[in-house]
Amino acid sequence: MAKEEVQDRYGIVYFIFVLLGTGTLLPWNVFLTEKEFYDVRLHVQPYNGYITENFMSLFCLVFNTANLVALGFLVKFQKHLSLRVLVLQPLVITFIMLLSTAALALRTKIPGDLMAKFTLPSLALMGLCMAFLQGGTMQLASIFSISHIRGVVSGIAVGGLVTSVLSFVSQLRAQGGGGDEPQTADDVAPAAFMYFSASAAVIGACIAGYWSIPMLPYGHYKLLLAGIIDDPKERKMLTIDEDFEEPLLTVVERADNGPSTSTGSRNETTRAAIISVESDYTIYSRTWQQRNAFYIYCTSLFLCLCVTMSTHPGISSFICSVDNPAKVSPCASRNDRPGILGRIQGDLFVPLLFVLFSLGDFLGRFLSGYGPWAHGAPKPLSILTYAVLRCGVAAAVLFCHLVTPTPWLLDEYLSQDYWPWAVILLLGCTQGHLISTICMHAPSTLMPTEQSKYGPVTSFAISAGCFVGSFVSMGLSSVFQSH
User: b/e for 198-219, b at 16 or more Cβ within 10 A?
Assistant: First the structure.
């Protein structure tokens, strides 16, 4: 009689993976949504004018460079690293850096140039940590099931939405200045401290969740089968079942290095592998388009993130309400209208744009589960065309009401406030839909012997798109400002 598999009771392990997905992109989301804080803190005398004028573009460039280099390393060497190195250690480093940033937010007398010298290396370190978390959390989830992989992906989308909303609320509760009076470091310090501290608490919860997985019956069972933890007696009892489910990542026992997660070859051929080979050979088309489907999908991922990063957040963070009195960056904290409307048309306008982008990204991922593309892999060139057409959405940002350090040269065809709201929402929605669609179907385009490419190569394409998009953003900002 077959032994029944241990169940994930109450979905506790699933929700831990949602939490880990949230923590994976938390460093990026936290610093991305604190543009108003750095607008003030980096202007404390003495400060570096180039850094203050281009902080968001420099942020994207530094963060994504470190992330891209680390992912390039992981493409080749991830299979040799333990889950402790890939998940736990990056979480601990991120936790320490967020706490340090929260403490630094209260040191309001620190000059802007010193603040920049701390912030930019911190961004590089957290970009590196995020690369390890991207690979590690997906590798850990793949030991469990497809639903747990979806949990990580869902957590990433939820994390972006939660951090942008949290940033908006923290700034809403902050003391706004009056009229054209600029905010000071003392004005923005309490909200920033609360925001960075809350983000550190989320990372702390991720650390606790990671530690608790092997203590839960379902987590212990799956890690035991995968060879991540070792109990020879219990392993023998659990693997006599002929209906044993092969994990997505094979565990190879090595005499020299001990057990390690890998997608390397095995001596034996399982029934699951035979079915996979038959399925892949059936799907694998003879046409050029489908022979190269995986690489076209990855090119589309690259274009998707490159197009987004070319205008958001490096340029979109300079959008102000058309009723904002500011003539140069940053936007005035409020206009002459009373109450929350004055704040929304003031210092809350950009945080609201980040909320709308994250909401659009979340909706796009949700909508990817419906329609014809949800039930079958779309044609690769259709996906590529979709990615190229998003250029029109991103370009619309350039014609909104931009208040840059020097006058913006392009005409404001989309100056009314509802235009940037709609454009940013659409930009986020199309990004979430495209990324989710590609990630769902890209594995089916690979042969069984090529499955190990999926995680590292797709992550590398995403980071490469962000990296190149950061340069494009800086170039556009320079070309379309008067000097």
Answer: bbbebbbebbebbeebeebebb
